[in-house]
Amino acid sequence: MGVKAILGTKVGMTQIFTDEGNVVPVTVISAGPCTIIRKGDSSVQVGYREIRPEAVKRLLNKPLRMSFEKAGVKPFRFVRSLPADELEGIEPNTEI
Q: What is the pTM of this model?
């Protein structure tokens, strides 16, 4: 697939030790699953964190709700456009 990025949420920070005994700070990330909402010429629109059906009306305005319905996908809390190298085989409503 041509998408080389994914959305995630920062869970926290921790540390690891190298072989020399040095401490390296590390960020812990909970990544995916992301769903492709729409594909363009050189990018795809990706949604992360599904919204519960009872909260959709409260969290999304009407134009955004209608765009999800038009695309035929469930509504998401976070929607971002990500660059994609190869768009063949990428279809809307596909998890990455």
A: 0.73
